[in-house]
Design brief:
Blueprint (H helix, E strand, L loop, with lengths): L1 E4 L2 E4 L8 H7 L1 E4 L7 H14 L5 E6 L5 H12 E6 L2 E6 L3 E4 L5
Helix pairs in contact: 2-3
Length: 106
């Protein structure tokens, strides 16, 4: 799960194959890098989760109200796939291709 906040990202993992303590170790707070969201660190963090849950294909985004649409789209793109260089060619590798956008009930 990725909470998209004005001050950065909050990443957490859910699952039944690991203890809550193990899942908590996969989570991470990713603060802004300067004035921008840190997509590089988000991608690395999600790759780490994917290594633990290789069959998982879904990520849930929970954005704060009032965030720019472009921020959500770039977050979705980061969660869906990443680029790998093989020789001189680049190709996309699926990460979490199914992105669900959710909201918090207050």
């Amino acid at each position: 799960n990725v909470a998209v906040k004005k001050e950065g990202f909050s990443v957490s993992a859910l699952g039944t194959a690991f203890t809550q303590e193990e899942l908590d170790l996969l989570g991470r707070e990713i603060p802004l890098r300067g004035k921008d969201h840190d997509y590089a660190t988000l991608g690395v963090t999600l790759k780490g989760i994917k290594q633990k849950f290789p069959k998982s294909d879904t990520v849930i985004l929970t954005p704060d109200a009032g965030l720019r649409y472009e921020l959500l789209v770039r977050t979705m793109d980061t969660a869906r796939e990443y680029e790998v260089k093989e020789g001189v060619a680049m190709h996309s590798v699926a990460l979490f291709p199914t992105v669900v956008v959710s909201t918090l009930v207050k």
